[in-house]
């Protein structure tokens, strides 16, 4: 049985939203992660195997692409208009950057796993058929 046999006929936007919310892409009820970024082996609600889906570096790459442009205006604001000492500006940027990564990375990883689960994007780490 291929993965395509088990994928329900649902809009990809709904499946992607489930991944963004950290829920099982198949049912939306069970959690997608056992810990912060560790995918669960099988869904607790529907039994869908999810542990074999590897997102690899994709989520980290997309997180950088999302967060980088968000931090640029903050950097300019701190440099151009604030009278704060440099070390305080750097502390603000560091704290904001870490907080954004901790917030965005699991959502992006959930999105990647959900899209890989649909088979709509190819897992380049999977062995050829
Ligand atoms: Zn499920």
Detail the topology: elements first, then pairings.
Elements: H1 3-6, H2 12-20, H3 58-80, H4 86-118
Helix pairs in contact: 2-4, 3-4
Bound molecules: zinc ion (ZN).
How would you describe this structure to a colleague?
This protein has 4 helices and no strands. With 129 residues, the chain is mainly α. It has one domain (12-118). Helix 2 packs across helix 4 (86-118) and helix 3 (58-80) runs antiparallel to helix 4. The model has no long low-confidence stretch (mean pLDDT 88). Zinc ion is lined by residues 24, 26-27, 29-30, 43, 45-46, 48.
The number of domains: 1
Structural class: mainly alpha
**Number of helical regions:** 4
Q: Proportion of β residues? A: under 5%
C-alpha geometry: elongated
Give helix and strand order, one letter per element, not per position: HHHH
Report a brief summary of the structure:
With 129 residues, the protein is an all-alpha fold. Helix content is 53%, strand content 0%.
Q: Which keywords apply here?
A:
4 helices, elongated, 129 residues, binds zinc ion, mainly alpha
């Amino acid at each position: 049985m291929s993965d395509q046999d088990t994928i329900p006929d649902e809009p990809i936007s709904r499946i992607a939203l489930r991944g963004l919310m950290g829920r099982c892409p198949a049912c939306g009820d069970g959690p997608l992660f056992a810990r912060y970024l560790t995918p669960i082996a099988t869904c607790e609600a529907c039994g869908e195997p999810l542990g074999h889906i590897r997102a690899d570096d994709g989520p980290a790459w997309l997180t950088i692409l999302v967060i980088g442009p968000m931090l640029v205006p903050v950097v300019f604001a701190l440099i151009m208009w604030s009278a704060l000492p440099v070390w305080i500006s750097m502390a603000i940027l560091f704290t904001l950057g870490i907080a954004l990564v901790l917030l965005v990375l699991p959502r992006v990883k959930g999105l990647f796993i959900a899209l890989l689960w649909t088979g709509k994007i190819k897992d380049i780490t999977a062995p050829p058929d």
